[in-house]
Amino acid sequence: xxxxxxxxxxxxxxxxxxxxxxxxxxxxxxxxxxxxxxxxxxxxxxxxxxxxxxxxxxxxxxxxxxxxxxxx
Length: 72
Prior knowledge:
Elements: H1 3-12, H2 16-44, H3 50-64
């Protein structure tokens, strides 16, 4: 049984007031996760110089945008 299935089964046994507490907790976890992603993005935004960003883009375009027909 997956984690989501176990959580679902546990949630089904809760009383309505406990279910509301669980829903609030899940909402706060999702919100914190979104805030963490935003903070990481903010910390790393602008970390590359324009020259480095251009070089990275060139490398990606030259090395990653090719199809190897022999590869699976």
